[in-house]
Amino acid sequence: MSELIRWGILSTAKIGINAVIPALQQSERGQVVAIASRDESRAAEIAAELNIPKAYGSYDALLADEEIDAVYIPVPNHLHMEWTIRAAEAGKHVLCEKPAALNEEQVTQMIDACKAANVVFAEAFMYRYHPKHQRVKEIIESGEIGEVRAIHANFTYNNCDDKENVRFKNDMGGGSLYDVGVYPISAARMFLEKEPEAVTVHALFSPEHDDVDMMASGLVEFPNKVALTFDCGMWACARAEFEILGTEGRIELPKVFGWENSDIPPQIIIHTDHVTREERVSVSNSFVLQAEAFADAVLDGKPLPFGPEDAVHNIRVIEACLASARKRERVTLPAMVPMV
Question: Boundaries of each GFO/IDH/MocA-like oxidoreductase domain copy (predicted)?
Answer without folding.
Answer: 133-252
